[in-house]
């Protein structure tokens, strides 16, 4: 598995968590992009299983990333719901890469997270790209 494959799998999983609603203020985040633009990322991502050296967890604790909603509520995105075999293959990749790069699981995950954020934010926002007609195009309705 290459880093770009890992990023693609993680991004797809994260995008699948949307739409998401803040349980406190009920703000709705339609897409991962919306979420990244509106919320404020909080601290490091937490690869709990990898941090514990648990590379093939039968009951994974999960990997989480935190952000603050505008209302101040802490929201999380997690690996929950990812098929276990896929999770294991990501963890196994992380196990090899952390050794090779001499990084902690947290450092590696933060690196992946920032790459995903960059990709998502660089993508054109299709939803607000609606066609708008300028006034000059509208013929004057004279009598
Ligand atoms: Zn909120």
What does this structure look like?
The chain is of the alpha+beta class. The chain has one domain. Helix content is 42%, strand content 16%. It has five helices and five strands. It has helices at 3-15, 32-38, 48-51, 84-101, 105-122, and strands spanning 20-21, 28-29, 40-47, 63-68, 74-78. The protein has a three-stranded antiparallel beta sheet with strand order 3-4-5. The chain has a two-stranded antiparallel sheet with strand order 1-2. β1 and β2 form a beta hairpin. The longest helix is centred in the middle third of the chain and has 18 residues, at 84-101. The chain is globular, with a radius of gyration of 20 Å. The site of zinc ion has 7 residues, from loops.
Could you name the key traits of this structure?
5 helices; binds zinc ion; 143 residues; alpha+beta; two-stranded antiparallel ribbon
Strand order of the largest sheet: 3-4-5
Bound molecules: zinc ion
Strand content: 15-25%
The major sheet is characterized as: 3 strands, antiparallel
> What distance separates the N and C termini?
69 Å
Radius of gyration: 20 Å
């Amino acid at each position: 598995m290459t880093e770009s494959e890992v990023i693609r799998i993680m991004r797809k999983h994260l995008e699948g968590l949307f739409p998401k609603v803040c349980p406190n203020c009920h703000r709705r985040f339609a897409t991962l992009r919306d979420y990244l633009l509106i919320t404020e990322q909080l601290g490091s991502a937490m690869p709990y299983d990898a941090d514990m050296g648990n590379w093939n967890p039968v009951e994974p604790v999960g990997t989480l990333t935190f952000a603050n909603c505008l209302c101040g509520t802490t929201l999380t995105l997690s690996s929950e719901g990812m098929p276990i075999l896929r999770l294991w293959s990501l963890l196994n990749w992380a196990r090899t890469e952390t050794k090779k790069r001499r990084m902690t699981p947290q450092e590696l995950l933060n690196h992946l997270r920032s790459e995903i954020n960059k990709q998502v934010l660089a993508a054109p926002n299709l939803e607000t790209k609606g066609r708008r007609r300028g006034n000059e195009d509208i013929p004057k309705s004279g009598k």
